[in-house]
Amino acid sequence: MAAQSTATDGSANGDPSYPSSFAAWYSVAVLMLMYIFSFIDRTTISLLVEPMKRDLHISDTQIGMLQGLAFALLYTFLGLPIARLSDRHSRRAIIAAGVFIWSIMAALCGIARTATELFMARVGVGIGEAALSPAAYSIITDSFPLSKLGRAFGVYNIGITIGAGTAFLVGGIVVAAVSHAGATYTLPLLGEVRAWQMVFIVTGAPGVVLPLLMLTFREPARRGLLRRQSAVEPAAATLRPPLSEVLNYVWLNRKFYGLYFVALALLSMCGYSVAAWLPTALIRAYGVTAGQVGKVLGVSTILMNSTGMLLAGILCDRLTRKGRRDAPIIVALISACGIAVFGSLPAFMPSVPLIWVAMFVAGLTFNAYNGVGPMAINQVTPNQYRAQVSAVYLFVVNALGLGVGPTLVPYVNDHIFHDPIKIRYSLFIVVFCAALAAISLLLIVRPIYRQKQTEAAQWR
Fold first, then answer.
1. DSSP state of 20
2. Residue 54 burial by CB count (10 A; 0-12/13-18/19+): exposed, middle or buried?
3. How confident is the model at residue 360 (pLDDT cuts 50, 70, 90)?
């Protein structure tokens, strides 16, 4: 009778060692909200390309650096030391500190007067955001049994699509104010700011109060610890491994981690390249306004990309229940194929209405891999390594995807087409080639992942 009561009280899947279902899903909702704001703050810049170029007197390649390289510069390098803290200390406190820092720095983007100042503020946004995902992945993995992880990671990761979509919508609403030179606002203490600067301030400032939400749930107990033998401290040997041990573990399992990290980095490159340059490509090639692009892209991103990510999680859980140990890899492959086929369709449609249709169709598969990609890593990584291995994953994904993608598109355009209007063709080249390479790597890594699942079952 007592056991029945425990299960009814909602511990995940009836297992009292997990948090209650309400507590587990509530923590996912809070973490997703943090993720939404992180993508608002990192994505808003993509709709402000033309007014920023005009007011800061910079090139497409320099804009690409502001969109990708500036953010990724310390975001990638600080991920590992911050994640190391997450594997040893309060994950909630680390996330809260990161949210506060990136929100302040996002707002500071709005008072930047030069390209250099804006670059440094974008670096600061990256520093704060480096604290979120490794710790969040670890919390979610400890909160749900294997059969529910796909949906949990899917819900958390729709923060990407809702955040990016909201950024596009906000940009679409205010873009009329930045459509002509000289548009300004006067703010107390800050004085006169341009309209595009105002966008950064409005989207960044609310995040300052978000850390308070991290006080509203408890961290789950750490599970899935890899037991190691230690003559001196056998109990402590399972926790707080030195960094050299973590990196050695990654190196020993490099066949999986290396291939998988690069595959998802290439898919990430597709996503960041499209987010950074599709609005500008459509504005230049089809004569639509930034406001139109922002509104349609915002709605399609929120609705279709989020739906695709949730469906990916549901499909992954269904395949897992049917005994498919490589379910996350299968879903990632489906997503990669969708990106290769539909990724650049919006830039090649013969009319504006067809562009909007293509954007909705492409959105369904474009972010699906994000719902299961990090989950696959955490499933086959011992608990005491998870946040740090996730940080290595994010290092590779963001160094290649975010650091290279948005800059590579204008670089290709400058050296092949030599015409700003033809940047849509450069976008197609980058997206198609990256997606094709990712498909090849995922096919290679699939049997390796099945073997890793077998090994993980022994200590899970």
1. B
2. middle
3. confident
C-alpha 312/C-alpha 365 separation (Å) is 9
Amino acid letter for position 313? G
CB of 112 closer than 8 Å to CB of 121: yes
Chain position carrying tokens 């729709």: 158
DSSP for 228-292, please give it. ---SS-TTGGGSS--HHHHHHHHHHTHHHHHHHHHHHHHHHHHHHHHHHHHHHHHHHHH---HHH
Strand partners, 187: 191
Size of the chain in residues: 460
The DSSP line for 321-385 is HTT-TTHHHHHHHHHHHHHHHHTTGGGG-SSHHHHHHHHHHHHHHHTGGGGTHHHHHHHTS-HHH
Tokens coding 400: 């290649």
**pTM exceeds 0.70, yes or no:** yes
Q: What is the CATH number of domain 18-212+242-456?
A: 1.20.1250.20
pLDDT of residue 446: 94
Q: Compute how many other C-beta atoms are within 10 angstroms of the C-beta atom of residue 331.
A: 27
Sign of the CA dihedral with 95 first, then 382, 85, and 24 last: positive
